[in-house]
Amino acid sequence: MKIAHFIRRDFLTVNPHLGIKAVKNQLLDYLAVVVQDDKGVFYGVLSYHDIAKNPKALILDCISNKEMIDGEFSVEDAIFKMDTANTDVLPVAVNKRFEGLVYKNELYKYISDYNLELENIIKERTKELEEAIATKDLMFSIIAHDLKSPFNVILGFTGLLKGKLREMDFEKAEKLIYGMNTQARNTYNLLEDLLTWARDNSNKIGYNPVFCNISTLCNEVINQLEDAAQMKGIAINSFHSTEVYAYADKNMVEVILRNLITNSIKFTEKFGKIDIYSMQIGEFIEVSVSDTGIGIDEKVKADLFKSDFNESTPGTVNEKGSGLGLVICKRFIERHQGEIWVENNKEKGTTVKFTLPIYKEELHKQTKTESLKN
To answer: Would you place residue 314 in the very low, low, confident or very high pLDDT band (cuts 50, 70, 90)?
Structure first.
């Protein structure tokens, strides 16, 4: 930083031929005064230190430093100059003309503040780096732990089929194939969660809200998960108003619904039921995913959305997960300025509710107009 940024121009000017007594009190207030004659000729700077060191009668006789430094000097060079001249203040010239004063204490304060700022930035960057490394390590741990088990099962199933398919009855072979399909689907869902979480943390997922029919999106997700529900004999029912639409990012809403419905399938016992509702409440649409599953412990419920790496609880038939699903849902819903929460049903099961902004025709027209202007 150049000292031109630290020049103080609120100085007091005195005539070189004045007596010392005339400026003693003023020196206490100003720390230093500029010595110039009536014609504007610069003589130097007088500080209280100069008077103590050279107690003469006239100001002219007490001045110990008349040399100006250039405004292009760096702060470090100016401090070195002050130390060499044994002074706490120096006059500064810009384009070879006297402009004002710089004080050592102010330059030191700048360096101290600058170093503190750098230190804070380094601490912040170090913390971010440590978190990134910890996240990467945890990601690898999750992948190693959660993918190893289903792949071992799939390898075991395929090994049995490979070695004993010819002597195996159809019903047993079909059961093994169903088991492989389940494990493959669980593994795929796990990878989807991990990749979605990773992209979101890298700010690679864009937010593009559009006109959304929640009923249509919900039915599309149910179709994707139908096989998994049928394997446990779980019925999925969907009830939605045909007149209310959301203003939301379709991809994000699909991820939210897929995670919530998958969770309900996972924690609902065989021949259970899942009901999905949506209704308008004020300026938002409230969507509910309700199941007849095993429910959630109150202690666990309090921490569901707090950590990126919640330990995954096995499902009713030991289904595996990443522990990231609800965290991803929360992040995506918050991008829509919505909320998500969990309620235990009175009799049995769990209800997860979340809100999305409703679609307003006038809002859509305004957004479209602003986009065209830009």
So the answer is: low
Rounded Cα distance, 94 and 91, in Å = 10
- Cα 167 to its chain centre, rounded Å, is 58
Tokens representing residue 55 in the block? 């107690």
State in Å, rounded, how far the first CA of the chain is from the last one.
38
Domain boundaries, the chain: 3-109, 208-365
| Pairwise CA distance, residues 31 & 301, whole Å | 65
Q: Which fold has domain 3-109?
A: CBS-domain (3.10.580)
Beta carbons of 305 and 327 less than 8 angstroms apart:
yes
Contacts of 307 (CB under 8 A, 6+ apart): 327
291, 278 contact by CB (below 8 A): no
Q: Is domain 208-365 annotated with CATH 3.30.230.20? A: no
- Only one residue has tokens 């008077």, namely 51
Q: pTM score, two decimals?
A: 0.54
CB 290 within 8 A of CB 296: no
The rounded distance, in Å, linking the Cα atoms of 312 and 322 is: 6
User: Is it true that 3-109 and 208-365 share their CATH fold?
Assistant: no
Residues 197 and 325: their CA atoms lie apart, in Å, by 9
Confidence of residue 359 (pLDDT cuts 50, 70, 90): confident
Average pLDDT over residues 342-358: 86
